[in-house]
Q: What sequence folds into this?
């Protein structure tokens, strides 16, 4: 006799369905749905007219290898140097989720743009001060921060700005003081426009002003979106990253309607991408399906070099200048320069 306990056979209940294991349904704004396959269609006449030495961009794209986002990866040429600087484009680096690469992208995109001769001002707009720390600044040792600039009359950008070790890149640092601003601003007149007002004098001096937002959609982030010309949304390459994007887009649209008509989404950039996994590729495909050409061709791979750069207090473009991460952020910089005319 077997000592196995008797197991009654139970037929599966008719109503019981197994939940789908991986892919959560994500609500995305329908107006932005594109079919990625149609973006890169190349007119045949363009091919027959092409001179071999000088193919049109669209033909060049069709011959290019497939990029991480499932579209042919265009060549982004080195930008021409700039003789003069400004007026600057203000970009809010924004995602209400933490740990998605906002600060990493702010530092490294900024440093790569500076390498291409652009004058860059980075604005640490997170009370955690990670951007300042990531550039080697001790947040407890700074005399004046973005908080003083926002809240105190008579404090100017010159009183707060710090030079970084990257030539052409400056920083408005922050520390925990900024968390008080979120509360104090509530009672200010035109409370959403305070950052816009204090950054205005810097616009003529810089080509890019990049605001590293805190992980929330609170008043500080609304200030950043109100001050900005464009938004870049970094997204971790995993399915749950897509959750919350709809809410972010809704906030952006509200700011467009009520505070800053000119605000544009400059693009979404996938971070922590792992080319070896089907999962990463599927997430990127979904992203392109939902946001089409707004998704940057450049995806930033997951690598331990980024946490290392934080410890070193410098961008990857100087810390590991020849690394894949440095290459990717340079390419993202060229893509941004191509997307934003006049920069
Ligand atoms: P956020 O500003 O959105 O909170 P961070 O840029 O601070 O995100 O990144 C969160 C953590 O992930 C940091 O420790 C950072 O070093 C690390 N990180 C960022 N980008 C990458 C990447 N591409 N690969 C691996 N780690 C990364
Ligand atoms: Mg951050």
A:
């Amino acid at each position: 006799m077997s000592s196995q306990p008797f197991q009654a056979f139970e037929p599966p209940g008719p109503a019981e369905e197994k939940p789908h294991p991986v892919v959560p349904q994500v609500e995305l704004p329908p107006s932005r749905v594109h079919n990625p396959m149609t973006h890169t269609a190349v007119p045949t006449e363009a091919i027959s007219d092409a001179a071999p030495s000088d193919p049109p961009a669209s033909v060049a794209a069709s011959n290019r290898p497939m990029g991480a986002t499932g579209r042919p990866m265009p060549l982004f040429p080195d930008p021409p140097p700039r003789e003069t600087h400004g007026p600057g484009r203000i970009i809010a680096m924004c995602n209400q989720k933490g740990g998605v690469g906002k600060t990493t992208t702010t530092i490294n995109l900024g440093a790569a743009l500076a390498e291409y001769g652009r004058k860059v001002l980075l604005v640490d707009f997170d009370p955690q001060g990670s951007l300042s720390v990531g550039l080697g600044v001790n947040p407890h040792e700074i005399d004046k921060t973005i908080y003083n600039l926002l809240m105190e009359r008579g404090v100017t950008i010159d009183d707060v700005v710090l030079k970084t070790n990257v030539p052409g890149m400056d920083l408005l640092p922050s520390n925990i003081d900024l968390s008080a601003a979120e509360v104090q601003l509530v009672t200010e007149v035109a409370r959403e426009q305070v950052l816009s007002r204090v950054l205005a004098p810097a616009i003529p001096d810089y080509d890019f002003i990049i605001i590293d937002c805190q992980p929330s959609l609170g008043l500080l982030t609304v200030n950043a979106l109100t001050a900005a010309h464009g938004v870049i949304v970094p997204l971790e390459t995993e399915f749950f990253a897509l959750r919350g994007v709809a809410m972010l887009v809704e906030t952006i649209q509200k700011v467009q309607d009520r505070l800053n008509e000119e605000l544009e989404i400059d693009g979404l950039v996938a971070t922590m991408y792992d080319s070896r996994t089907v999962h990463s590729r599927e997430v990127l495909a979904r992203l392109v399906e939902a946001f089409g050409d707004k998704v940057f061709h450049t995806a930033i791979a997951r690598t331990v070099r980024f946490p290392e750069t934080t410890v070193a207090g410098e961008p990857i473009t100087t810390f590991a200048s020849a690394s894949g991460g440095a290459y990717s952020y340079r390419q993202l910089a060229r893509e941004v320069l191509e997307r934003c005319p006049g920069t």
